[in-house]
Amino acid sequence: MSAKVSSVGLKGLEGYRVDVEVQVKEGFESIVIVGLPDASVKESKERVTAALHSLGFPLVERKVIINLSPAEQKKNGPLFDLAIALGILKSGGFIQEKIPVETGFIGALSLDGTVHPVEGMIAAILAARKLNLKMLILPFDSSIPRIEIDGLELVYVESLQDVLNLLAGQQLLPLLPEAERVEEPKVANRDFNQIIGHEFAKRALEIAASGEHYVLMDGPPGCGKSLLAETFPTILPSLSKEAQLEKISLYQLAGAPYSSLTIPPYRHPHHSASSVSIIGGGTNPKPGEVSLAHRGVLFLDELGEFSKKTLDMLRQPLENEKVTISRIHSTVTYPAKFIFIAAMNPCPCGYLGSDSHYCTCSEKQIKLYKNRVSGPILDRIDLLLTLKAVNLKGHDFSQNESSEQVRRRVSAARERQYERYGREICNSSVPFEQLIGGRPLTSSQQNGLQNLSMKYGLSNRVQIKIIRRTWGRFSSPILGYK
After folding, report:
1. CA 142 to chain centre
2. What is the spatial distance between Cα 334 and Cα 329, in angstroms, rounded to a whole number?
3. To the nearest whole percent, how much of the chain has pLDDT over 70?
4. pTM of the predicted protein model
5. Comparison of pLDDT for 108 and 282, the residue scoring more
6. Following CA atoms 76, 78, 82, 85 in sequence, which dihedral angle do they give, to the nearest 10 degrees?
């Protein structure tokens, strides 16, 4: 008799349903796994055999054939151990209880039958919801927050015996991760009221935060570019529940620590970082910095010092808000929806146009330095800011707005955009058809934009970005528009 048990496979952050089909029959003692398993899946037969023997279910003179369907999809990781063990017990006649098809099972088995957490459990939970599973049986992990998803019941177990007791109708003691702690207000290391001057730049960053626009800051060393970028996350709204789960999933897949659930991520890779660490990759593709910055901020300081290869690889995530990594055995796609902030000096020495220092760079050196950032990358950036050094003398800090004040305006602007477009999407990402449908420009403004485009040779992408930023001015409640 054959048995079928449902599980969830992962391809990057995307999940797909895996039917673990098991057939146990008399014959030479062996276990065969088919369905494109990788090494970690093939090794599961040893773990499962030992776990079943520990529970008193030895596979003596039994031949076991395991098919992981769909057969054409590459399977990886030990998360099918629990489903394989249940399939063997059911097909071999060791248990008589029915295994519901709409219930999924994930988890790695130890030799004594304990069920251990696996990499990417949060991603598997999100995938189970999309696959319309009613229940998901998974290992208890105290390191992940409590997750409540409508339409999906999560049951945490510690051992294979717990699963057997559950199938037999016994009530298990609830095993729930600790409830998410409510974060107390913290004194941020950075705040907008600490920034002296740069009122125009702070206003531009507020616009960028409201519409999720990309920003490039240009200016001499010490003028405040890095300070503005480091302070920028403090004016961003807290992450929604959906965004929190996406953030945890990516950090768990990458094996990277995170400090907070609700605060948007801020990633600041050094210019010496490899393209793989920034974009993602490896033999088993892992998320890179662009994906770890998902729903947050990616700041590249000294943009001209990054390799041309790395900058050119940024084109896809900047345009499509996702990154696709192709390898011989698999192709995975990770989300990469972030606000891109970049900073660079105006020349190699940094003092071109400075009032206090003399620039020692030749015209050729300046041209070569600026050409390190290709035109297609500059074409994707919404706001270009030129900064100058600020005089600190006589400045009154009490006149500066705090990050909290700015964040309230940013949150209000985003809510108006969500209401306008009917979903959580901002001006920078809304489809062009929907953007134009709102008629953000008058006829005279459209004619003016066409004249500017012909005069300065603006690309279609730049023209669309101008319209997106123009639509942002109608988000102001003072004008009465929505």
Report:
1. 22
2. 17
3. 93
4. 0.85
5. 108
6. 80
